[in-house]
Design brief:
The complex is a heterodimer. By secondary structure, chain A is mostly helical. Helix content of chain A is about 60%, strand content about 0%. The chains are: A mainly alpha, B alpha/beta.
Amino acid sequence: MSILPQIIFLLFFAATGYVLYKRVSFLKRNIQLGKAESRNDRSTERWQTMALVAFGQKKMFKRWIPALLHLLVYLGFIVINLEVAEFIIDGITGQHRIFAPLLGGAYTFAMNFFEFLAVGVLISCIIFLIRRNITKVPRLSMKELKGWPALDANLILVIEICLMMAILKMNAADQILASRGVEHYTQLGPLFFSSLLKPMLVGFSDSFLMFIERAAWWFHIVGILGFAIYVTYSKHLHIFLAFPNTWYSNLKPKGEMANMPEVTNEVNMMLGIPTEGNTEPPAEIGRFGAKDINDLSWVNIMNAYSCTECGRCTSECPANITGKKLSPRKVMMDVRDRAEEVGKSIDTGGKGLEDGKSLLGDYISQEEINACTSCNACVEACPVNIDPLSIILQMRRYIAMEESGSPAQWNAMFQNMETSFSPWKFSPSDRFNWAEKVKDEEMK
Amino acid sequence: MSNYKVPTMAEMAASGDNPEILFWVGCAGSFDERYKAVTQAFVKILNKVGVSFAVLGPEEACTGDPARRAGNEFLFQMQAVANIQVMNGYDVKKVVTACPHCFNTIKNEYPALGGNYEVIHHSQFLQTLINEGKIVMKGGGEFKGKKITFHDSCYLGRANNVYEAPREIIKALDVELVEMKRCRTKGLCCGAGGAQMFKEPEAGKKDINIERTEEALRTGASAIAVGCPFCLTMMSDGVKNKEKENEVKVFDLAELIAKDQGLS
């Protein structure tokens, strides 16, 4: 037998490996455009969070219909990959169904289970397409999804449907050939789902069925390799990044805003409080708050690449619900798009971060971030623990401290606090007046 | 009978005492006309139960929360460091406050600046007093058998995972607690957090407090219970906007207890 298919397969496999290596390096470098931040503490809790939230899909189940459909696709993805392992071994060795003779009846059982999942994925993807394009679930048809994001979502679903159809068709053709005693094909026990496709194929000749079987095999494996590359250009990256993203979750109380130690030093100096340790001003004074992606933490940028644009954040955002411009999902998409833009620019010898553009201003407007109530609904809603609020608050810091550009009423509030230690304009000496009324009252 | 007492930390220190808790009143608790009633109700309960407490009085300053959320980290830290100096000066160990924003800031954000205290929201504190039998409920008073809904504050709920204490208090009142669809982790903000209290909202199709008030009114509750001064303002404004202020009242949890106890 010719070893040409094996050579072609190996070439495909190696080429995919190379492209993936380049893509992963690109993404990793983009994420590292963000500032260093250590999140390696409390590792037991981090593994638990990853197991529950990413692996166990815990937060998906806040909405159980999409959660169940998504669970099928997720299980299909994980389990059918076991079959892909066989595809790869077959492809390299030139064998066909290498595990079938070894596993016997268990192999048939596994194939039936894979087929069940393939059908589950197929049905879920069709329902997802209906939700996006026909019933138009509000969070899946908002304006920030116009263009590429909507196409990306539909492409993913269509590709998954095609891949699953290929598996079923391949099995059907394969088993007809085996039942005809054609050499090289292994007769398995009955395969429930693919046998439903047999009537479509039984009329064809052996050679045509072999063509269909091989075509489906190649379509599936090349499709999967191609899809792996596609994913790195797509919101679908969440299938990998959900895991590190949840591992690096913020484990502190959601209400806590990160301290800015560089400010603490100056405040202590102003108030004449001796500071512990080094009181020298830092050699390089960074920007206060965030204007562009390099002012954010790398975790913020990883968050952005982990976002699959499901919009649960935006659909729970009080500002968005009441018609304000803010959409936490758009904030995440903007961070990712800006990181992509800067990354591509650097790689093509462009100006990178110095291209005259910035996240705040060119992608996200002040009006959007000013509308945030810091209520943490978006953070709570995210199935993979993305934190849009952290990014919003860092941008507010930039506007307030670097540009003094806060809304006039906030500037007035700042002034009140500076002069009378209250956000309202009351005399500090009146602060205790409320007690007079109680003190005059006889205790009941 | 003697009058209610509101001792300050300075008076306590002068007589060599150190109270068990510092009651952190907050700016709304000190200055907001409506919300002062909550402060007064809580102080009456503390007196009645005989809790050893004091307030900072004129020495208290804003925690800095709205400044920090609006992005002004310098101003926040100026406020915070000054407050911490005062509290550490009095050797404060335990802080109780009715404001979830003060609660969150002192509990979660002051430690990084040298202020380490046990911080308790008044809902948790009151729940403990009820559980310990120090407050014996008298059957809900004017609310007996009526429907009350509870509006979760973001800085108490999602920010700090306090969901049950306020509900336990309401249940102790012998009333019917009715939940809004968006409650607990899904609770909808009143619209005032993140320093929104201090500016007009951005352009949109509706104000957030109206959206939330409509949801609360749909429960058919005769009172909306809150545990936050900003929520109290926002929900009260919402009820007024809907011209329901004669039928539906907005109360803080401390006021509900004070009413039950005949203290108000």
